[in-house]
Design brief:
Helix content is 30%, strand content 28%. The protein is elongated.
Amino acid sequence: MNRILFERSEIVGDTATFGGIRAEHVLKVLHGEVGQVLKTGELDGAIGNSVIKDISPAGEITVAVAHDRASPQPWFDLILAPPRPRVMKRLLPQLATLGVGRIVLVGAKKVEKDFWGATLLKEEQYRPLLIDGLMQAGTSIMPTIETRRNFRKFVNDELDGMFPDSERILAHPYGGTELSHDDNRRPLLAVGPEGGWTDDELELMEAKGFARRTLGDRILRTDTATIALIARLI
């Protein structure tokens, strides 16, 4: 946790009071005390520093907030055929840490159908995971998550409007060239199910300007492949 982040509603005037795991981290890991300067930020807002003004007997911390500069912005977007919920739960904080802006979860043919009923798709479930990733990175801009169960309709009818100017990269273990990236364009990375995209899905996305790219012959799990791909783009 390299930056404590506050919801907008937690900042009143120029002060904020917080408890829970954030306060526990400050007290136990950072050995917080009155007068100590903390790195802080407002979710979807500015970042800066705060000074501890009070620590209550219950462990709540009150700080004087001074957020005076813009957060680093997200730099890539992701189309993802979602893996099992427990894998998604591991992946989401890492995506926020690495700088994802927009995540679209799509219903590719090999996605397990019961995924769409997972509680993880509720904002109150996934939002804390994204915030955890942002606090690790020291940034404050929240990624967005959208679901599109009809893959073909999304690609045909919505893709161009949502991502008009991106560099479109289609990750697939077979038949692609080595991963590369145009530094002048924002990447839109499409990662399929662990069994890979179907031939129909590949054909449809390539017709929309996606270039097929590979990391090599090894078949990777979704979370491993996604992180490895993003690391190659940085």
